[in-house]
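Lab meeting prep.
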Amino acid sequence: MILFSRSFIRKRAISLVTTASVSATSFALAQDPSRMYHVHGTMPVQHVADRPNHSDEQPFLSENDAAMSKMMADMTIKPTGDVDRDFVAMMVPHHQGAVEMAQAELKYGHNEQLRRLAQEIVVTQQQEITVMRLAVGDELPPAAASPTQPGAMPSPANSDDAGSHSSMNMK
C-alpha cells in the first residue's frame, strides 16, 4: 500500500529544499552583512568610512550610505498584481537613489567632469521618474528648482546648508 503519492513527495521535497535554502541564506547574511551588497569583496561604505584616512570623505560617504539604504528599503514593495505599477514602484526609488548620490558628488566632489556627469544624472533620472509616474497615471509632486540653475545646489565650500541634500523634482 502506498501512503504518499510521488507528486506529494516531490512537492514536500521541493518545499524542504526551498526552506533550507532560504534559511541558509538568512543565516549567511546574519553572519556577514556586507554580502547584502551583492558584490563579492566589497564592504558597505560605513565600514570603509570608519578608517581614519577617510575622515575628509566621511560626509560624502555618509550621505551615499544613507541614499543607498533608503533606496534599498524603498525598492522593497508589496506586489499589487499590476506589473507596470510595481515596476514604477521599484524603479522610482532606484532612480531617486541615483539622484541623491549624484547630489552628494555635486556637494563634495572636485572633478569637473564628474560634477557635470552628476548634474546630467540628476536631470535625466528625474526626467525618467516623471515619465514613469505619468505612464501609470500618478500625479507629479510640486516642481522645485533645477539642480543646474544657479543657486540650486550649494558649492562645495557651502556644503553645510541644511536643505542642500533634499530631493528635487523636475518641472
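Slide two material, second protein:
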Amino acid sequence: MNWDQVKGNWKQFKGKAKQMWGDLTDEELDVIGGKREELAGRLQAKYGLTKEQAEEKVDDWVKKL
C-alpha cells in the first residue's frame, strides 16, 4: 500500500486510523483528510512524538494496511 492509495480512499482508511490512534478525534481525522503531513503533525501533538517518530509511525501503519 502506498500513501496515494490511502489519500484517495481516506474515508475508508479513516476508521483504521482511528483504531490505530484512538486519541485522534473524528473531527481531527476529517481535518487530516488523507494528508500525510497533517496526520504526522497530529500524532506529534497528541502523542508527544518527534517529527521523525511521527513520520515513522505513519510509514509503518501504511505498510501494514
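Talking points for slide two:
The chain has a mean pLDDT of 96.
The two ends are 6 Å apart (CA to CA).
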